[in-house]
User: Fold this.
Amino acid sequence: MTASITRGRTAFAFDSGALLAKARKLGCDQAEVYETGVVTTPVNFENNHLKSVETAETAVVAVRVLKDGRVGFATSSRAGDEGVVDMAVRASEFGPEATFEFAAPSPVPEGLALYDETVADWPQEKMLAVGQEIVDHVRSLEDGVLGGAMVEKYIGYTRVATSSGQEVCADGTAYLALASAELVEPDNMIQVWRYSASRRLDLDVGAMKADLTRLYRHSRHNVPFRGGRYPVIFAPLAGADLISPMMACVDGMAVVKGESPWRERTGEKLFADHFSLYDDPSLPWGIRTTPFDDEGTPTTRRPVIEKGVLRGFLLDLRSGKALGQASTGNGYRQVPQSLPAPRASNVVAEPGATPLADLIGGIKEGVFVERLMGAWAGNPYAGQVSGNVHIGFKIENGEIVGRVKDCMVTVNVFEAFRDSLLALSRETQSAPPAAVLPYIPLDAVSVSTKA
Assistant:
């Protein structure tokens, strides 16, 4: 038995008051109860056919205790399980030193756009129809093309309660849609996809189909390309790889451990004037919009980079305490069963004023990178991003003329965003897991090809 989650009215699976009371009874100095429940309904199409339709309902509780100067942690997915407190207390005997305190009572933002009735009421048959529409469209592109689609909706809640008196809860909805087209030939492989996610049902199926068609048509014709230094436009999916080293460097624990090279550089101008990057948990209908983090700390929109200047770091309770600062409300859990750590909410880069068509039109010879592959293998703290161009196109005399293959781009992000960042596009697009980015043009990017 798990929590009952229906249209924003939640019957909790766990009694946080009872869990906190038990922790006090067992001699804990402080305790924190984190609970989350979710109903997911995924519809999956693979290779032109419906693969699965499911509905799953889960609830998880995670308990942290501070006892005798150490931290204990345990989780459970059994509704009403008070034994999770006993497990956390036992774990504290071998846990790390307790260097922080759990969240104290503090008001959290109200009125954030988190819950959409149309997502909660979205019937499964309509989700199936969306997936089928996407697959049918992909199949119509060309004989032999394989279409895939995933359409999923979430209805859930998160609650945090501490022995200090903080108690917060929020209901939320979300959908995720993924559309793909794949063609495999003896000497060629095309794999393009489109992604959309939001807390409200603003899915534009027509736009997804049009984007897939455009990407597929561009990919169908391979053109020769030689290595060198070129202007390169990074689409938001590839741009997320460029932003990744910056987010690694503002991670509070990386700062505490001395891994981040930016610890003493707050207030310094690191990048071009026209580059600003925000952590925005208040973004209307953002996939990670939330009034509080997974430690119960209130959230707020804050600049990470503002007009090229480093403004601060993303901190949870532990890293904030270590740096002598308050948590910034960025203590998130990768999964409910993991400990919180400094992470971003919605990552938003401020767009420019230049239409994408003008960016492309202004390039005599260059590359448009839709997706990179393997870019994570670089050294984030040095700003180094190297990745194979999974889907990319040659720009010639202001037009996309075909797909480039067997190419790799190498960018020192810290140098490029300081010295080589051209005008950003006015168009933005979502990129997983939770970023909203413009198209990012960089000058003189190193592009290597097979000899």
The chain has two domains: 4-212, 222-451.
